[in-house]
Structures are given as C-alpha cells and as structure tokens.
Please model this.
Amino acid sequence: MRIPGVAIITSALGSLIERPFRTALTMLGIIFGVIAVFVSLSLGEGGKERIRENLDSVSARTISISPNWTGRSSRQRPWRPFTENDLLEIQSLNGVYAATGGLDSTYTVVSEASDWSTNVRGIDTSYLKAQELVMDRGIPISDFEIQAKSAVAVIGSSAARSLFPNQDPVGQRVKIENIPFRIIGLTKEKGGESWRGRDEDNFILIPRTTGRARLFGDHRLARQQVRSITIVGENQGVLKQIEDDIDRIMRRSRGLTPDEPPDYRIFNFSANRQAFADTMRTVSLVILALGGVSLIVGGVGVMNIMLANVTERTREIGLRKALGARRSDILLQFLTEAILLTVISGIIGLILGYFISQTVADMDQMKIKYSWTVIMLAFGASFVTGIISGFIPAFNASRLDPVEALRNE
Amino acid sequence: MAGPLISVRNATRIYGKGEARVAALDGVSFDIYPGEFVAIIGASGSGKSTLMNLLGALDKPTDGEITISGQALSKRSQRQLADFRNKIVGFVFQQFQLMPRKSALKNVMMPLQFRRPRFSDEKERATQRLNDVGLGDRMDHKPTQLSGGQQQRVAIARALVGEPEILLADEPTGALDSKTSEDIMALLHQLNDNGQTVIIITHDPEVADAAKRVITLRDGKIISDQTRDMAA
Model:
C-alpha cells in the first residue's frame, strides 16, 4: 500500500539535501527563533509553577523587620534594636502564625574535629516553627533552657557535617568564643538554598538569654534587645494587615511622631518574591519577543531562499507540468519543502533549547518546566513560519506557464 | 477507419496585443488518425513549436478548436489540461529534460506520481519501459553517466510510461550525432509499428523524410500535407 504524502516529503527532503550548505544557512534563523521561544516559554512556565508552589509555603508568608539607622541626613538617629516587649505585642496580633525574635552573629565555632564559621543565633521557642525547622535527633531548646540561660545548642545539618564529619553531633561539645556549649539537638535538613542563594542549614541555635548574657552582650539603649523579628502570617491574606499593625506598634514603642520617617524596615518576602516573579516574567517576555523577531527574520530568509529555488528550478517546474503535474502538485511540492525546512529547524531548535535551558537552570537555580503545550507552541511557530514564508514562492511556482518555463535556460 | 485521434480546426494562436500582435499560427486545420507517424516540419518561426504546444495541451488556441481523443481542449480547465497531459500525451524534448540527480528509473517513474488514481505497480511499469528502449541494464545510472542517445531513450521511456495515445517529440534528434539520430528514429518507428501514434516536430528534412506523413508549415500556415507510401 502507498502512503500518500510520504513520496512528497521524501522528494522535498531530497532537494534540501542536494543543497546542504544553503539549507543549513537558511535553517539557522529559524533554529535561533525556536530556541528563544522554547527557552522563554519554559522559563516562564517554570516561574509560574514556582510561584504557585510557594504561594502558601511558610517562606511566602514571612515578614521580617529589622532596625534601620539611616534616618534623615540632617538628623542622624542612633541605631536602636527591638525589645522583647515589641515581640510580645506582635505575637499577640491577629493572624500571626508564629513570631520569633533573636540575636545573631557569625562566629568561628570549634569542635574537637574541626572549626567552622557559622551563624550563631540566640532564639526563643517560636523560632523552629517560624523557620519551618523540625528536629532530626535530640531535643529542641525549651523554655527551661531559656530561663536557665543554659549553654546548650541545636545545630543545623550542614554546620553539623562540617564540625562533626561522620559523627553524631548530639551530645558533643563545641566552643564559641571559648565558651563551651553542649549540643542537644540536630535539625532536619531543610534542603538546598534559600531563594537568595544562602545555605539554609548552616547555623547553630542557642537560647536567646544565654546569648545575650554571655555572647552578644546587651544593647545600652534597649535592655532585653532582639535584633530582628520574623513573623509568619496564617495565610497570604493577612500579611498586609499584620504589616500595618507592626507599623503602629513600632511607632508607639519607639516614640515616633506620625510625620517622622520610620527607623526600622519592614521586609515582606512575598512582595519581594512577587517582584522577583515579575522580573522573571519580563525577562522571559523579552526573550519571547526576540524569538518572535528571529522567527520573522528566519521566515524572510526561508521565503528568500524558496524564491531563489523557484527561479533556479523553473525548467524543472515546466517539465513537471508537461508531464502532467497540476498546479496543486507544484504548490504542495514547494510548500512541503519550506515547511520541512522550518520544521527540521524547529526540531533542532527544541533539542538545543532543551540543553540551553537546562544549563541556564543549573546556573541560576531557576525552575524550568517542560510541557507539551510549550513544545507544541515552539514547534507550531516553526510550522506556521514555514507555511507563511513558503506560500508565496510556491504559489508563484504553481502559476508558471509551462511553455515559458520549459524555454527557460 | 475510426474517427480522427486529433482534429485541428482553424487553430489560431496570437501573441501580443494591439500593434504588436503576431499570429504564430494562423487558421490551421488537419486531422491525425490513430497509428499515424506524422512529421511537422518548418523553419524557425513557422509556427511549429506553437503547434506542438497546442497539441500537447501546454497552451490553448486563441481561436479555433483542437479536439484530441474526443476532448475539446479550449473548454478544459487548467487542472483538466494537466491530467490530459499526463494521460494522453507523452513528451520527448530536444534537450531530453531529465532530472540530473535522479536515476534513469526515477526519471521514468516521474510522470506516474501525477497520475490519478495512481498505479500500484509504478516501478514495474517504469522498468518495463526502460527494457523496451534497451536500457534495462542502466536503470540505476544518472543522466550524467549516460550518453546523449541513452539519455534520449530514457526520455522516450518516460514519455511512454503513462501509455499515452500520442507520443509528441520536439526535435528528438536535434542534440544528437547522425548515427545516434538514426538509432532514435529507428526506435520511434519500431514503436509506431506497434501501434503508437507518433508526431515529430522538426526543421530537418532528413528526419521528416522518415515519416509516413509530412505536414509543412510556413508563416503559421500549412503549405503542404503529404502522405507517402512507406513500402516504396
């Protein structure tokens, strides 16, 4: 049995292979176009998916506040930390899932096996909840240790790996600034890096009170200081209200008049994340536009080459007509060639685009999503380009007068 | 005798418009019956190429009518003319007009791809035709690997593969040396002996002499139409 169309495609393929250099050059523009369309759509889809996944995760519901000492230039204000009282007020707000405040600083921590520079955080009991940390082994820091100002610590998994290679850290001792701490717990790996690229498991947690008394010292302007406060809302919807409430509490607590600029900064991660997503969308739109332009330019190239093809093969067209080819046969023949040219370019572009977007994703920790929709879109774009740019040359070919065409030298 | 295979009535073909009007063919009438071997001869500009284009349905007359195999060509659409060229006429050209990158077999098979409905045994038919013209052992050769005479044989096989009612040859020996020309003419006669209607367009009286009937054109008109007894 004869499969219709196969012969047309084989013969079109043959005529493309007969002119390999020209075919390859013509394909370049389309290949670039399809790469750009595919990569930008994949990045865009990946970005969307990432936002969807994270919309209700703890980190997307997080607000942090930190003291800020850049006031009006005319009147420099001293840097003032927050107090435990501020934290208590925030914890009692409506819609707050968890709020934690503490102090932190980076120290070189010494174990028997090794030493390691890590972030030492003085925390309260809300910290694990607000940071979505769970214990792997041992026990968390409790009110008892905080009250007693005990020299105990809970260690993050990557700090543990560095300080206690191939050992169980729980029960071991470390020295921070020569003060010995007993490790009572190990947190479960949070995995990877934060969206800002920080290792999320490199830390040592100690009771806030212990830290204040023996490590960080207490601030002269604010007894019972906490350096930064992290608040997790119950859901995305309450974040704005919480932000307003915090502003009110802080202004009162820090004695600011309503027209004075704040000396603290409220940092809403979800807003930041949204901005990040918007930037990514803009970037992928720009790439998409570039891809579109490249496809158009490539399409013009294909049209150009097909017009040259038709002129060059005028006699062949005349011969085919003399042998009984209908106009539609000629039209189909040249249209098939143009479409084949762009579709093969499209396939090459998809393959290259896959590798390129993989590389980009690996480099920038971006999420890439491949979907059939994206593949079909990029492929369809190349197919449509073939039809559009192939039609006029093919139509011209089909209208050639066979007598004239056969006479052509 | 049956009716004519080709009936040309007052066929006129005018090129150009207004002052530049030129009648390449001016009111020509004749009939050709099945099985004839006709040579149409004339000098350059006599209208013989125009007549060939009309007989091959590559062109339509400006005035008059050509009826081939019962079909009045002036009333046919482009598509019907294409199908007509495929089924009724087999063309042989002076310059062979073979596809240079395709094998002899592929060249011969070419017209079959335009046949509707298509034959299921295209390859067998093409092979058979190549055997008929004595090139059964050269089927996979490309035109560049064949001599001029062999190339014209491939072209004849291609013209015959669709089993046309008319074999229409335009200066078939024009590009060949005299020895090869004789071979090609012998092949055409052999085909005619087997019942194939053959029309040759030529400017060469020697080639025309080999035909049973010679129609002579000058300035777009028939000046003589002679049938001779070949047995003599």
